[in-house]
Structure formats: C-alpha cells, structure tokens
Design brief:
single chain; Arc Repressor Mutant, subunit A; 152 residues; four-stranded antiparallel sheet; alpha+beta
C-alpha cells in the first residue's frame, strides 16, 4: 500500500459519497486509475464495507451506554457464548472480549431507559453466567470516529 492508497482510504473514510472523479482529482490520478486502486483495496480487504453513518439522536437512539460485564466462568467458550447472545441485540453496536477483570465491554445505542431496562432483562437478569455488570451512560462525547488513521 503506497501513499496514494493511504490517501484514498483517508478520503473515503472522511466522505465515501465522493465520486470517483472527485477522488481521482484529490489524489492526482486519472479516474480509471483511481477506480482500479479502489477496487484493488476492496478486493484485498483493506476496505471492509461502505456504510452511511447516522446521527444517533435523529435516528431515535440518542442514549449511549457502556456496559462492562464480568462472567462467572472465564474462558473462550463462556465469553463466546455471551458475545453471541449480545450480538443478537440490535441496541448492542459494539461488543468486545477484553483482558483484565472485565470479560466483555458492550457499547449500546438506545432510545431511552425503557429500552435499556428491557435489554438488561434479556442479557443479565436470571442468568447464572453473569457475575456482575456495570453501566455507564455517556454524558458528553469528546471524540467519536469510525476512521482508522492510515496516512501521516
């Protein structure tokens, strides 16, 4: 991956709705060369997918919560089982198996506390595999990006 590929990746992460002609102009390539590079980046897996990023409040999901989960039993199969359960919940937008005292971290996007309560009932209540969970509600966002820095 050369500097032009990296620049294209940065530009696409910034605004993937740019036309191929616009991208080509910004990186100093012909449109056909630019298109070939982007196709190669997609085929090679550098570009995983192209999505629209919604405004959470306007999409009715203005409440953001971070939940740390400690499981009763540790190990890959127990963590995997819980992650699979969490992944089926639409409000769970990110789910991570982590090291340390916490086993799993969940990032949630919710409409309100009622939705949070319902999710807790499904994921945590009356489950013998959950030792404890802690919830933090985001009060202010200092930075939130999906971009992965690749150049510079």
């Amino acid at each position: 991956m050369d500097r032009i590929d990296k620049r294209l990746l940065d530009l696409l992460q910034e605004d993937a709705s740019r036309t191929n002609a616009e991208l080509a102009d910004l990186v100093g390539l012909s449109p056909s060369s630019c298109l070939r590079r982007i196709q190669r980046l997609k085929a090679g897996g550098a570009i995983d997918r192209i999505v629209a990023i919604l405004n959470p409040a306007k999409a009715g999901k203005g409440l953001k919560a971070i939940v740390t989960v400690e499981l009763v039993r540790h190990g890959e199969q127990h963590t995997r089982r819980f992650l699979d359960l969490a992944a089926r919940e639409p409000a769970v937008v990110q789910a991570y198996s982590v090291s340390g005292q916490t086993d799993v971290i969940l990032m949630l996007r919710l409409a309100d506390m009622k939705e949070f309560g319902s999710l807790c009932e499904r994921l945590f209540d009356d489950r013998s595999d959950i030792a404890r969970y802690y919830t933090m509600f985001v009060v202010r966002t200092g930075k939130e990006t999906t971009a992965i820095p690749v150049s510079g």
